[in-house]
Structures are given as structure tokens and as C-alpha cells.
Design a protein that fits this description.
Protein name: Fumarylacetoacetate hydrolase family protein
Radius of gyration: 21 Å
Shape: globular
Strand content: 25-35%
Order of helices and strands: EEEHHEHEEHHHHEEEEEEHHEHEEHEEEH
Keywords: Hydrolase, Metal-binding
CATH architecture of the largest domain: Alpha-Beta Complex
Pfam families: FAA_hydrolase (PF01557)
Family: Belongs to the FAH family.
Domain Fumarylacetoacetase-like C-terminal: 230-373
Structural class: alpha+beta
Number of strands: 18
């Protein structure tokens, strides 16, 4: 099986400006039998290092709840654990030395949510999935039909606007309306639960595919990290792994299509907002995707956040507020415009993952999230939940007010 990273070099996963940003993460420390919060800092020799700041902030949630998380991260004192290169090299489960630290996903107690159908291109692909009833053989012909009825450029159509409602009326009259068009151009955004707190996998780990799926794809996205008072405090990269056949059979199977073991990948680090990186930078972000298979297959593409149909701040408003409260904050996947249709096997079958695929999701300001795909049951089991975390922090004397 191909390695998750070709070279275990911090430059392979850090943002283009290296350690200049306020980068926070989590690592597993075997000698403590639990996770630690780390700041990514430039060492005296110029090598990126991971500094354990858990005594100041026992969880990422605690860091995000401060009035200025970026400043708090920079001011926090801590213990230098190891160079980032060494921890990254020890993260892949098949080559790991269990006595040394490895990377985890950079969030912990936050609810993990996702916004669906936020780009016109992926919206049309969801309509195609629905009409194909999860059958990739039927997708090509349906794609032509949907393009004829709806058009292929809805980027300038503001969801919920009078123009959008007029288009809806026309499509309903033609019998072409869809639940995906409803959330794509209607007044209400689709917000769903992607994963449970503490269940996400990080950069360098394996990501999970349900073994019953025959039609699936990666979804490269930016994920916002939001404090409990609705402040958007930072961002990271994510892979909202999607099972197109499950969701295409019925939207009521969304939970089975999305929330599976190891199927939520986040990382490599949380970049907290400061003067050098803001929500406006997220709005301008271009996310790239590369998939390389052990069969020699390669797939690449990009997703520009500038083409999103709902502003990221509006999506956060839809996720939380008076009717939805998250005392530990939340992570919100913003959606993707990337819906691969390139044939991997037989003509008309489109793209689907194979075990061993390496997925690299990258953006200039957030770095690179790299994972290798395996069936869910073959990934590392998730056994360390909220109860285990609280017990571990208590033993370490980190739960005092």
C-alpha cells in the first residue's frame, strides 16, 4: 500500500507562509495516554516545532472560547515536544512507533456540522444522484437532461431571492424540482451533522469508506471553527467523504452516507484568525484536490470559495443561534463545488474511490490535509471519546478552573 506522504517534511503540510500564522493542533502523547494541545512554532534552528500548551488550554475548545484565540495561542507557554517532521513521520498507523507522539485532528469537543449543496456544480450533481437513484450507469444521460432543464451556471442566483423563487416555480411546473434544488437555491440552507465530537481523523491518518458503497468521492472543503458565542475564530481543511450511491437512493440515508467511522478528516492544523489571516481570506481561498490510486489513476481539481452561493457567515448563522446552541462550539464544513465525473473504469461509470487511494487537499493559507482511504472497519477504531478525555485530563490535573 502506498505511503500516506511521500516525504515526511513539515513543508509538505504547512501553509505557504510556514509558521507565520497562529497554528494550533492536537497530538497523541503515549507517555500521558492522551491528547495534548500544541502550538506550531519556528524553532531556534528554523525547524517547525510542536509546543505543548495543554496546561494553559486543556482542549482546543477552551482555546477557541478565549476573547482572542490567536493572541492567546501565541502567548501560551509550554513544553517543546518534538519537531513537526518527526511527529508527522510517526502518524501513519501502519508504520507508527506507539511509544512516540503522532498527529490528531485539530478539533475536539466541538460539534462537527456540514453545509450541503452550497455550490451550483455540486448541487446539479446531487440532483443527478437523486434521479439516478444511486446508479452510476444512469448518471451520464441524466446529467444531460438536468443541464437542459436547469442550465449549468447558477452561480449568480442568490438563494431565496425572488429570481430563485421564480426559477423554482418554473421547475415545479415542469416536474423537474428536487430536494437538492430546494436547499441549493431556496431560502433555507442544508446543515447536517457530519461526525461526533472527537471522532475526526487528522492529517497522515487513514480515512474511511463504507464497504457497502460502490459510488463515492472525496469532498475537499474549508471548515470554519466557531466559538459557542457564534464568533468564527479560525479555519482548517476537511474531507467530507461522501457516498453518492447511498445518498442518491434516498436523502433519508444522509446519515449513513456521511457519518461513518473515520469518514471525517480535518487538518492539518487549525489556523486562528488574526491580522494576517481572516474570514475574507477564507472567502478568497482556492482549495485543490489530488487523488492518486495504487492502480496509477490520478484525479485533480479545484474549488474556489468565491463561487459559493451562500456566504460563510450566513451559513454559520444558519447553523447556530437562538434555535441551535453549542456550548462547546462547532466546526462547519462549507461545502464543495468539486463533484468528479471523470470515468475511472467503464465508460459512464464516473469516479469512485478504491482502497489505497491517497487524497491530498490543499490551500495556500491552510496547508495540506493528506489521508489514505480504507474501508471503515479497517481504519483505526475510535475508542477515545469525551468520557475518556475527561478522565485523562483529570488524572493529569488539568481540569481545575
Amino acid at each position: 500500500m502506498q505511503p500516506i506522504l511521500d516525504a515526511y517534511d513539515a513543508r509538505a503540510i504547512l501553509p505557504e507562509d510556514g509558521c507565520a500564522g497562529a497554528l494550533a493542533g492536537r497530538i497523541w502523547r503515549p507517555e500521558l495516554n492522551g491528547p495534548s494541545i500544541v502550538a506550531v512554532r519556528q524553532g531556534a534552528d528554523g525547524v517547525p516545532e510542536l509546543v505543548d500548551i495543554t496546561r494553559a488550554f486543556p482542549t482546543i475548545r477552551d482555546l477557541c472560547e478565549t476573547p482572542d484565540p490567536a493572541a492567546a495561542l501565541r502567548q501560551a507557554a509550554g513544553e517543546t515536544v518534538a519537531p513537526l517532521d518527526a511527529v508527522l513521520a510517526n502518524t501513519a498507523p501502519d508504520t507508527r512507533d506507539p511509544s512516540k507522539p503522532w498527529l490528531l485532528a485539530p478539533v475536539d469537543l466541538q460539534a462537527v456540522k456540514a453545509a450541503g449543496v452550497t455550490f451550483a456544480v455540486s448541487m446539479l450533481e446531487r440532483v443527478i444522484e437523486e434521479r439516478a437513484r444511486g446508479n452510476p450507469d444512469a448518471a451520464a444521460a441524466i446529467r444531460l437532461e438536468v443541464g437542459r432543464l436547469v442550465g449549468d451556471d447558477l452561480r449568480r442566483l442568490k438563494p431565496g431571492s425572488p429570481e430563485a423563487m421564480s426559477l423554482k416555480a418554473v421547475l415545479v411546473a415542469q416536474g423537474a424540482w428536487s430536494q437538492y434544488l430546494e436547499v441549493g437555491i431556496g431560502p433555507d440552507a442544508e446543515i447536517f451533522t457530519k461526525a461526533q465530537p472527537l471522532s475526526s481523523v487528522g492529517c497522515g491518518q487513514e480515512a474511511g469508506l463504507h464497504p457497502g458503497s460502490q459510488w463515492n468521492n472525496p469532498e475537499p472543503e474549508v471548515a470554519l471553527v466557531v466559538a459557542s458565542d457564534q464568533r468564527i475564530v479560525g479555519a482548517t481543511l476537511g474531507n467530507d467523504v461522501n457516498l453518492r450511491d447511498f445518498e442518491g437512493r434516498s436523502a433519508l440515508l444522509l446519515g449513513k452516507a456521511k457519518d461513518n467511522a473515520a469518514s471525517c478528516a480535518l487538518g492539518p492544523f487549525l489556523r486562528l484568525f488574526d491580522d494576517g489571516f481572516t474570514l475574507d481570506d477564507v472567502r478568497r481561498t482556492v482549495v485543490s484536490l489530488e487523488v492518486t490510486g495504487e492502480d496509477g489513476f490520478r484525479l485533480s481539481g479545484t474549488s474556489a470559495l468565491s463561487e459559493i452561493s451562500r456566504d460563510p457567515a450566513d451559513l454559520v448563522d444558519a447553523m447556530m443561534g437562538g434555535t441551535h446552541q453549542y456550548p462547546d462550539g462547532a466546526v462547519l464544513f462549507l461545502g464543495t463545488m468539486f463533484a468528479p465525473v471523470e470515468d475511472r473504469g467503464a465508460p459512464g461509470q464516473g469516479f469512485t474511490h478504491k482502497v489505497g487511494d491517497r487524497v491530498t487537499i490543499r490551500s495556500p493559507g491552510l496547508g495540506a490535509l493528506v489521508n489514505r482511504m480504507r474501508h471503515c472497519q479497517d481504519c483505526e477504531p475510535w475508542t477515545f471519546g469525551a468520557a475518556a478525555l475527561m478522565r485523562n485530563l483529570a488524572v493529569r490535573g488539568l481540569l481545575a478552573a
